[in-house]
Design goal:
It is a single chain. The chain has 272 residues and is of the alpha/beta class. It folds into two domains: 55 residues, no CATH class; 202 residues, Rossmann fold (3-Layer(aba) Sandwich), CATH 3.40.50. Helices cover 42% and strands 19% of the residues. A hairpin with a 2-residue loop joins strand 7 and strand 8.
């Protein structure tokens, strides 16, 4: 049973004291002592988060989302769960595959996946692609994916980041997929990624990116990217926005695209 810290200010102090007396009478000393610890700790945690957020906005510090930290974190991650620790439910994943991946990802051609992790989406992408290249900042992820999918003869994986796609030829990519990756990449880095996408995309190529929308204000280890900033930086590089959404309805059920007001943006490089 968790409460929402922001709601506490809606009850005046004298009323809180009377509520505390009822809590003590009904729940006993141990429960109330535990609640008091939680109450103080959660308040302090929220204040600390607010201070961190102000520091990042005022002084442009990277928080947890620099390239060096992302590399260190994801190379240390235990990938035994295959990335499914971020899947809310099987119906949600099925909806993402059928509505988003199948709905927007073209069949055939060369697919570029940024941040495949342990291959949570890679198998589905390989089924639709003639060839797939996965680029991950983590060497351990490249090893995992090579072991899982290397025998298909359609997939290759390399260590790197979209910040520099020097291993990908100019105008060679038909489609891009990236999920649960750009939520951890700050805007300055995303702009460089977008430059590289513009270089490697063929005319008419489609990009599908899952990213943050509120600049990390909801927590979740998110980057400083906002929805508006993402759309703006793509448009400035000449991409057309096909769709951009926080929720979608599939087979009568409405799903959120992510856990922290995340967004999926679909964009296209115009035909020459």
């Amino acid at each position: 049973m968790k409460d929402i810290v922001e709601n506490r200010r809606r009850i005046p102090l004298e009323k809180k004291l009377s509520i505390a007396a009822i809590m003590l009478r009904e729940n006993g000393v141990i429960w109330c002592a535990s609640f008091a610890t939680y109450y103080a700790a959660s308040t302090l945690a929220q204040q600390a988060f607010a201070l961190m957020d102000r520091q990042r906005r005022l002084y442009a510090v990277p928080g947890m989302n620099s390239r060096a930290l992302n590399k260190a974190i994801w190379e240390s991650w235990d990938w035994n769960a295959g990335g499914e620790e971020w899947t809310p439910s099987e119906p949600w994943k099925k909806a993402i595959i059928e509505y988003v991946l199948h709905g927007f990802m073209p069949k055939g051609g060369r697919v570029l996946e940024i941040g495949p992790g342990a291959g949570r989406w890679t198998g589905e992408l390989i089924q639709r692609a003639d060839a797939l290249t996965g680029v991950d900042i983590s060497a351990s992820c490249v090893e995992v994916c090579t072991e899982k999918f290397g025998s298909t003869g359609k997939a290759t994986f390399m260590v790197g980041s979209g910040h520099d796609l020097s291993g990908i030829e100019t105008a060679s990519v038909d489609a891009l997929w990236s999920f649960d990756v750009f939520v951890h990449i700050n805007q300055a880095e995303v702009e460089r990624y977008a430059d590289e996408f513009n270089r490697v995309f063929k005319p008419g190529a489609i990009g599908i990116i899952h990213h943050g929308s509120v600049g990390g204000a909801r927590g979740g280890w998110r980057s400083n990217l906002t929805h508006e900033a993402m759309l703006d930086l793509l448009k400035k590089r000449g991409f057309d926005i096909v769709d951009s959404f926080k929720e979608f309805t599939h087979e009568g059920t409405t799903h959120q695209t992510g856990l922290y007001e995340d967004v999926i943006t679909v964009f296209r490089k115009p035909m020459a």
